[in-house]
UniProtKB/TrEMBL annotation:
Its EC number is 5.2.1.8. It is found in: Cytoplasm. Also involved in hydrogenase metallocenter assembly, probably by participating in the nickel insertion step. This function in hydrogenase biosynthesis requires chaperone activity and the presence of the metal-binding domain, but not PPIase activity. Residues 6-80 form the PPIase FKBP-type domain. InterPro entries: PPIase_dom_sf, PPIase_FKBP_dom. It comes from the Bacteria. It catalyses: [protein]-peptidylproline (omega=180) = [protein]-peptidylproline (omega=0). It comes from Oceanisphaera psychrotolerans. This is Peptidyl-prolyl cis-trans isomerase.
Amino acid sequence: MQVADNTVVQFNYTLKSEDGQVLDTNAGNTPLAYLHGHNGMMEGLEKALTGKEEGESFSVTLTPEEGYGERKDDMIQRVPVKHLQGAKKWKAGMMATVHTEQGERQVTVAKVGKFMADVDMNHPLAGLTLNFDLEVVSVRAATEEELAHGHAHGEGGHHH
């Protein structure tokens, strides 16, 4: 079966920077699962996976526009330090989680004072060209429940 809209895809990945440094991987863990064609995956990855079959391995390079977007200089915000989650003591460069009107968001601490911190709301990988090594582990038709919920269930997917 080929990867197409309304299929559940399980895959393994290794994400590398332009210079070949491994930034993230799920090697040795459960494959990721997503419902293809339902905006549950980065658009550039979904496009690259379309038409692939179970067992296929390949590499793809995504521009910033196809990945996490370009960095935006106006994405620095000042927030109370007490709203940063993930550590007790903060330093510039650390990753934190903050609650926003759109839900939880990962941010990078740019500058920290006693009570307030400047945080960069850009995705940490925004502005980077990303190189993915991908392996399609399985492809199957989505269930009616998955289609109704808009995401994959089961191993590597969403658990209710």
